[in-house]
Amino acid sequence: MEKSIVIAKKNYPNGKIKSTNMVVYSYPRIGAMTVVRDKTTGDEHRTFVDACTLEEIQDKPATESELGVWSMSKMILENGVEENLKEWEKSDQLTNFIEQAATDKGVNISVAVTEENINKLSGTVAITDSTSKILGVPLRGQETDYYCIPASCQMIAIYYDKIPTPSQTYIYEYEGGRNQIPLFDEDAEDYCEDELGKFGTVIYTHLTNVDAIDEIDNNRPFFSMITQHSRVCKGYLIQNSYTYLYINDPLPVGSNGTPKLERTYGSSEVERIYVRE
Fold first, then answer.
1. What CATH superfamily is the domain 134-274?
2. What residues of the chain score a pLDDT lower than 70?
3. Is 45 helix (H, G, I), strand (E, B) or coil?
4. I need a surface site. Which of 34, 146, 177, 261 has the fewest CB within 10 A?
5. Where is the Peptidase C39-like domain (predicted)?
């Protein structure tokens, strides 16, 4: 997916990355699609990169007689590919963990495993089949029923030592909020770029455990979006091959917010905004 972003920035230097998703662009081929919006004209352009070869794929929009490059992707993903990818990630996490444990214990997993080596590994796996990291993101409650994005932006801003601390009303009005209409995910992205200097901030709708863990391991909290609501992810927990996210939820209105621990498998999460340099 990173290769798709790099190529999109090269092809459209005056554009702003809107989203990057994994798609089935020509069944059964899978690749990354990055959508770029021209800052001047507002036109949107798509860049495709094959997941296996990492080669750029020429865009082919759908017409009355042609299916187009990725017209089947949504249907295919909804019919099982995405769930299979989640299961693959869980299995891959456990495999990587065992391989690392073997390396730490001096066990060569490329040769036949002896009873002695099994005993070396068993204690390590049983004791450390759980790992976590939590960032120091403060919990804040949203002040009105349409301030979930301002509250989430406020948490991120405090984490990055924004001085003075912006109020939720300031963030709402800075992003053009009016008439009690909620802000959009693009407004959160824009705030992080303009006010926090995080110009690599990007919206993702293809959600993976690997990406979430990588963000937290690099000390980058991110927006965790469910339908019509924004929260902040500040950490993760991997336990028994499942991945959980530590969430700062600004609900209920008028409260101090609610800390949550959510399992990613079967989650209601629909989008993330990764806040990057």
1. Cysteine proteinases (3.90.70.10)
2. 1, 24-29, 60-130
3. strand
4. 261
5. 135-250
